[in-house]
Amino acid sequence: MRYWRRGIWAGAVLATGAVVAVAVQDRSLSSTGSLISVLGFVVSLVGLIGNTLIVGVGPVPGEPSPAEHLDHAADALAEAVRLHWQAEWRLRRLQDPRPLPVRWTTAAPWLADFDENIGLRHGGAAELDGVLDDITRVFARVPSRRLVVLGAPGSGKTVLAVRFTLDALARRNTGDPVPVIFPLSTWQPDTTSLYAWLSTRLTDGYPALGSVQPSGSLLAAELLDTGRVLPVLDGLDELAAPVRTEAVRQFNSELDQGSPVLLTCRSQVYGQVVTEGDVFTAAAVVELQPLAFEEAAAFLRLTARPLRGPAGERTTAWDPVLAQSRPGDPVRQVLASPLMVAMARAVYGESGNDPMELVRRPEFADPTALEEYLLDGFVPAAFAGSARWDAGRAGHWLRFLARHLEHRQTRDLAWWELHTALPRPLPRLGPLLLLGLLAEAVCLPLWALGGDPALPAVTAATVAGACAGYAAGTRPRRKWLLPLLYAVPLSLVVGLTRPLSQDPYLTVPFAGMPRALGWLAAGGLYGLVIATGLAAIAIPTSPVPSTMPFFGRRRRRRRPLRRWARRALAGLVVAAGALLVGVGFLPGSLLLVALAAVVAGALTVYVARGEPGDAAAKTARQRDPAGRARRLGRAMTHGLSAGLLAGLALGAVFTVTEGASAAVRAGARDDFPVSGPVAHAPDGSRYADAPDGTRYGLRADGDTYVVLPTPVHGTLVHHSGTDEFALPDDVRELDLCAPPARCTPVDQRLTIAAHDYRSDGEVFTVRLTDGRTVGSYDLSPLLNTAQAEWLTRQSPGQILRSAVVFGLAGGLGLGLVAGIAAGLHRWLGAPADVTRSLSPSASLATDRGTALARALLIYLAAVLVGGALPRLLALPDAATIGAYALIPTGVVTAALSAWGRLGVARLWLCARGALPWRLMAFLAEAHRLGVLRQAGAVYQFRHARLQERLALSVRADL
Predict the structure, then answer these.
(1) Is there a contact between 754 and 704 (Cβ–Cβ < 8 Å)?
(2) Distance in angstroms (rounded) separating the CA atoms of residues 934 and 385
């Protein structure tokens, strides 16, 4: 923490130096008020964050001990794993009528470690032979509790892993490790450690394990570190060949002595790994054996549709095929694989197809051709009984998905990765480009109907800036390039082309740029603001589905009316608050405010969380208020730190560069806008007279004034103890002389000076011939462009100061909105206490709810921060601008979520016919029919060979 304290002190010193530098350059402390307000608030907030990080919240007496908490989490995980794999076992019909009798024997001795390291007595490896139902007992005979299961493709390794998991869970006692199946195809051993990958996979499949514990680590990591998880690592052969040896090396280096593991791999691949590297330390090795033909034949008869024989006896379509089979026939060779037996059952067992073609057709003399034929027929046979999906189109869609997975070299069919099938640059920037097209579809017709041409130009520049900034953050190690590559060139363009005077009606220091260039600069800057907000809110370029249960399927609870009443009350409160705030700040747009309030209330009802369904979990929450406070503190600290850092960094880099370049221009300009002799007045000011008689004056303190050449006819309005000068048109239109105001005609030569920007609309002051200085109404009819720019011109110090203040205040508003939204989103989305596996459909629903909730939080934070902060702390209006700039960013975050990217992918892929429009329903049907299997939030093809065959299919697309 000493580095954090040093950082705070260093930042305070730099901030103080900036204030002193501005004060010295302007020779006045009064000009630094806004800068001091901004920096003071930032330093106070950073100090608060630091104290939160350093002090923290102490433990609460009476709460469960860490060991008890981990035991409860392990028990909940065991129940979730059991429910998931029991459902998968039934969907694969492995219990109908009974599993195939898979057998194994001890593998060749050179594939295993020494018996002494395993803990076996000499020759004890022979006791490891067994059948499917013996797997947990055989595993228990291995003293080291490490077992490697080898086998040929389709020999039943995954089925054995599932059987082991279910049997181990059935015999598990409290405190025993929980077997969890981890498909190894997603691991990258060359870049990710074993325990880090295991922790990530646990969190992906079981979101509650992603909660942060008091120790600062994830619950999943603590379960792994304390030995409460038994990894069942399925498919070492599915890793890329160059990293398999590294994977085994990590097994040997990271796993502690006695850590239980079950590993599956193809026999040939494991032999290569051992030859090139080493054996799995202390692991016994067994190898699955081919099915006996009699066992496969008996299974096919038991599962086939019954037929009536010649004498009325019971027979099946398989009986003549099996009766004609002889040793060495292709049919016998193929049916030695449990996978091919399952394919044959699906293609012929219940479809009515005649399996006699397997022995009649001459092309099936090759066992490989026969296997490919069975694999090709599996999908049509599976979908033959589907009343919803045509088998031909289903095969087309599944072939596309298989080719997509083969291209990505993965077995996981994740719905949130389907956008990677789009052509570049759509996988990364597709949602932004789609939003840009929708915005242009609205702006272009408005322009064609006579609207402002700035709308489509600014929209295009905004999309370009957002895409550039968002793309720059695709590589985490190069995020620092964002302000250098995009903000610096843009700020230089603004600084070299902006007026050197302050627009008296706007607080933006670079308002008044050339029209077309101003549109592009404003749009580009706004795009960078959106990209910065996305970075602060932690919107990744390759998102994964959120596990935050803002919305999702929950178990029904009692008293649903009370739950909905609370949701409705929350929605009404949010809608009323949004309506009041909107009416206060947008009184001229009541329809828009009302619509926003209705949307905010509806989204609140949609994402509001109900009471916890588990009584124990509810009791734990009630007795752990400090835990909730800790989570809130961590979430807000993390969110505000990221938000303020991103917002202030962008504001500082942009405005310092822009202000410095404009200040250099201001220092090199002429003192007066007209040529001619310069005279000195008794009060120390200098002035020059234009040919038309206008006098341009420059006082010693840098203020400017203009003396008009001819007398001006006007009115001096006396009201509420003040005098203001007004032109006749304003007097008549505004009825300024109505009682109790009194008016005095004025007809004299005026001296006009600039007035600091004020919200009451006063821009210029007028000095009368009697020496009095009064405020004024609109004097623009008296001033031409040169005179107005002279009156509002700024010194180099004023330009730099106004730019820095604008950047810091705008960055502060932007950072607070992003930080508060990120912090609340992180806190409110804490994983549920009851562990449940996350299905693909539930994952999609959860991510959709999270995306909508995030958009709502951004909207509320932007409105509240933009409306309240500048008034509470007397900050410049730039803070309001920075906060309000993120209001539409909520829509962008929703589009860039995993759910939003899936929508973009569906628009493209479904329109081309590559996928069905009802994608998730189709995948769920394929899972129900046994074509796909579920592994957490992803689907996988039933077997790697099925995926490979579908990907290689040469059938024409439909």
Answers:
(1) yes
(2) 21
DSSP 8-class letter at 423:
P
Report d(CA 442, CA 454) in Å as an integer: 13
From residue 67, give the alpha-carbon distance in Å to each of 71, 81, 105, 222, 684: 6, 21, 39, 10, 81
Q: What letter does residue 486 receive in the DSSP assignment? A: I
Whole-angstrom Cα Rg for the chain: 37
Amino acid at 778: D
Q: Mean per-residue pLDDT for 570-590? A: 61
The whole-angstrom separation of Cα 465 and Cα 457 is 12
Q: Tokens 């026939």 appear where? A: 329
Please give the pLDDT value at position 923: 92
* Residue among 942, 940, 923, 936 at smallest CA distance from 181: 936
Min mean pLDDT across 106-110, 567-571, 642-646 is at: 567-571
Query: How far apart are alpha carbons 165 and 172 in whole angstroms?
Result: 10
How far is Cα 187 from Cα 193, in angstroms, rounded to an integer? 9
Q: Phi/psi zone of residue 268: left (φ > 0), alpha (ψ -120 to 50 degrees), beta?
A: alpha
Q: Which residue has the higher pLDDT, 635 or 552?
A: 635
User: Given CA atoms 156, 949, 346, 415 in this order, what sign does their dihedral have?
Assistant: positive
What residue type is 130 in one-letter code? G
What is the token pair recorded at 52?
């939160």
Q: What angle do CA 92, 107, 254 make, to 5 degrees?
A: 80
Residue entry with tokens 């038994």: 230
CA pair distance 619, 623, nearest whole angstrom:
6
C-beta separation of 236 from 270 below 8 A: yes
- Residue 204: exposure state from Cβ atoms within 10 A (0-12, 13-18, ≥19): buried
- Secondary structure string (H, E, C) spanning 289-339: CCCCHHHHHHHHHHHCCCEECCCCCEECCHHHHHHHCCCCCHHHHHCCCHH
Residues 783-808 have a mean pLDDT of 79
C-alpha pair distances (Å), 939 with each of 74, 297, 708, 919, 935: 25, 31, 80, 13, 6
Closest CA to 378 of 956, 852, 929: 929
Burial (CB count within 10 angstroms: exposed 0-12, middle 13-18, buried 19+), residue 450: exposed
Q: ∠ CA(142), CA(147), CA(151), 5° rounding?
A: 135
164-194 pLDDT per residue, tens: 999 999 898 888 899 999 988 888 888 888 9
Burial of 613 (0-12, 13-18, 19+ CB in 10 A): middle
Q: Looking at the DSSP assignment, which residues form a beta bridge with residue 793?
A: 501
Residues 146-155 pLDDT 10s:
999 998 888 8
Per residue in 14-28, pLDDT tens? 455 554 454 444 444
Strand duo 229-234 + 261-266: pairing: parallel
Q: How confident is the model at residue 644 (pLDDT cuts 50, 70, 90)?
A: confident
Give the whole-angstrom CA distance, residue 693 versus residue 782.
Answer: 14
How far is residue 158's CA from residue 140's CA, in Å, rounded to a whole number? 19
Q: What length does the chain have?
A: 958
Predicted pLDDT of residue 623: 41
User: Cα–Cα distances in Å, from 454 out to 433, 444, 447, 524, 871?
Assistant: 19, 10, 8, 13, 31
Q: Which of 473-477, 558-562, 572-576, 604-608 has the highest mean predicted lDDT (pLDDT)? A: 572-576
Displacement of CA 159 from its chain's centroid (Å): 35
According to the model, what pLDDT value does residue 477 have?
52
Q: Rounded to an integer, what distance in angstroms lies between the CA atom of residue 207 and that of residue 220?
A: 9
Cis peptide before 183 (omega within 30 of 0): no
**CB-hemisphere CA count at 13 Å for 905?**
24
Q: What is the pLDDT of residues 34-55, one digit of tens each?
A: 554 445 555 545 554 444 444 4
Between CA 835 and CA 617 the distance in angstroms is 11
pLDDT at 433: 86
pLDDT value, residue 6: 47
